[in-house]
Amino acid sequence: MVENSLRQGNDSAVIKPRMNIILAGSFVTCGKSPMLLNALPWPDARPLPDAFFDRDAQLLARELLGKVIRHKQGPYWLSARIIETEAYYCAEKGSHASLGYTEKRKALFLDGGHIYMYYARGGDSLNFSAQGPGNAVLIKSGYPWVDAHADENALAQMQLNNPDAAGNPRPIERLCAGQTLLCKAMGLKVPNWDAKRFDHEQLFVDDLGIIPKQIIQTTRLGIPHGRDEHLPYRFVDAEHARHCTRNPLRRGQVEGRDFFTLAQGN
């Protein structure tokens, strides 16, 4: 089933008032200046401001869960709710930034809210810079979102963008289940968005006031041995654990050993 917490009353999320939102112990002001309102793609759009990203990478990774990425492709706003993220720091060996500054990695060293994209296993990957040079959050997976601004036609476009190996429409629940699958479905490309800022007319992260009830914290995926693979910097919306890159709640995983459960606000 396509995700739509607003229309279908999904009990996996708590819908908060849209003016002031408390996320993991931090305060976010959601008021719009007249200048910003004029730039919005629709009157009730709520793009995250650059200041939202100017926070610790782990905190940012948690607070991005439940937000909706919006990307305009042709006439359609392709949309996906963020369900899995990973935090990275310049000071630890698992990050690209730990390898040093290069022109290609410059977005990692810019202010919070810059887009950093790179190729992974032949596909595109989406990251946002966080507080502090070299710190960032990888958007690991999402779940297709359908609402008044991203209708069934937008969903069909996402399926056209990201068919399965046989060329058939990929199942909805697997359409964005991985960092490269997400970017492919959303039409996000390294040459178009690397080292850029958000553009409210083309690409932004929408705050619909959705706060996951529980978050799973565990180790990141694909980190080579000896490069801080033990650090628990991966965060998953517990209700969507089965839809992410690899289910942290799969059989054989033990809470307290393989993962931790965070109640919202921890």
List the helices and strands and how they pair.
Elements (H helix, E strand, L loop, with lengths): L4 H4 L4 E3 L4 E4 L2 E4 L4 H6 L17 H7 L4 E6 L2 E13 L26 E6 L2 E7 L6 E9 L7 H10 L17 H8 L3 H4 L9 E4 L3 E3 L1 E5 L15 E4 L21 E5 L3
Antiparallel strand pairs: 1-10, 2-3, 4-5, 4-9, 5-8, 5-12, 6-7, 7-8, 11-12, 11-13
CATH architecture: Roll
Percent of residues in β-strands: 25-35%
CATH class category name: Alpha Beta
Q: Class by helix and strand content?
A: alpha+beta
Query: CATH superfamily, please?
Result: Methylpurine-DNA glycosylase (MPG)
General form: globular
Total strands: the figure is 13
Order of helices and strands: HEEEHHEEEEEHHHEEEEE
How much helix, percentage-wise, in residues?
Answer: 10-25%
Largest sheet: 9 strands, antiparallel
CATH topology: 3-methyladenine DNA Glycosylase, Chain A
Total domains: 1
Rg over CA atoms, rounded to whole Å, is: 17 Å
- Distance separating the two termini: 30 Å
Question: How would you sum up this structure in a few lines?
Answer:
The chain is α+β, with helices and mostly antiparallel strands and 266 residues long. It has helices at 5-8, 34-39, 57-63, 152-161, 179-186, 190-193, and strands at residues 13-15, 20-23, 26-29, 68-73, 76-88, 115-120, 123-129, 136-144, 203-206, 210-212, 214-218, 234-237, 259-263.
Question: What descriptors fit this protein?
Answer:
3-methyladenine DNA Glycosylase, Chain A, 15% helix, alpha+beta, 266 residues, 9-stranded antiparallel β-sheet, two-stranded antiparallel sheet, globular, single chain
Q: Can you walk through the features of this model?
A:
The chain is an alpha+beta fold and 266 residues long. It has a single domain (5-213), classed as Roll (3-methyladenine DNA Glycosylase, Chain A), CATH 3.10.300. The chain is built from 6 helices and 13 strands. Strands 4, 5, 6, 7, 8, 9, 11, 12 and 13 form a 9-stranded antiparallel sheet that branches. A two-stranded antiparallel sheet has the order 1-10. A two-stranded antiparallel ribbon has the order 2-3. It starts with a helix and ends with a strand. Residues 5-38 have low confidence and may be disordered.
